[in-house]
Amino acid sequence: MDRCPLQTPLFTFGVIADIQYADIDDGYNYTRTRRRYYRSSLQLLKNAQKSWSESAVKPRFILQLGDIIDGFNKMHDASEQALDTVLRELSSSPVKVHHVWGNHEFYNFSRSALLRSRLNSRLDGSPSGAPERADIYAYQFSPFPGFTFVLLDAYDVSLLGREESSEEYRNAMAVIKLHNNNEDLNCPPESEHRFTMFNGGFSKDQLDWLDSVLSSADEKQERVTVISHLPVHPESTDSVCLAWNFNELLAVLRSHSSVVCYMAGHAHDGDYCRDKDTGVHHLTLDGVIETPPDSDAFATVSVYADRMVLEGFGRVTDRLLMFS
Asked: CA torsion 52→53→58→63, rounded to 10°?
């Protein structure tokens, strides 16, 4: 693929997803069909950090697309220790990391704890805007004039991370019970497979905020990349990995000319599609956790005026993402 070696990009950034580190022996996924490499995920993160630090054009920031440590840490009382281990590696370079929250963040920590933690990338004051509701983990930032990134909270409506006595928990339970009657809510229903406990959705407050952010970007003729843990395009992932109300989020994205790309994790095999109606690229990044120790799973994205060029490493496929 042509990576335009003679043209310097406006900026570059790194992206990695589903590290799910734990200091335990290798295991398997929920259905015991896929191997998971808990310890070696840390080495794969080190490989990514080394590549980014040695690149000719240093990344301006890193996108960490969620599930930074595995839920098994909770039952071993090792959540803080595992998080320290991974964040120590990520902080080995001075590059800003934007942390997305996935289901495994909530297996380890409550929402209130995450809002106070080092996984709240808003706390350093660099993001330029966020929803009025303080419990929604979403914000926007601009790494370069004319380009905006919007981080979304895919578990804003969810059973995960919420107190069982809270109104938010009751509302999420009402949503999931409309579609999933299984005793184990992590078991997908026969249809509408996405309505499981390990997924979530976007509240109206968050969707309205996103709509206003994108309206402003439209007026300024900016290029917007939206990032979250859960995919929202049915052709960009397995149906069991979609956000609960992916259709509502898609409708917002499709109503704005500024959106060029949506990036997510969660589905460890990765996937890609381009929205036929809008030309928006929907990229689901391959997960580190199911990547064998002799491979890799990360990417470096070079951004130009008319395109993004994704250089994939290991399992991640190279992609040329032209702007419409």
From this structure: 40
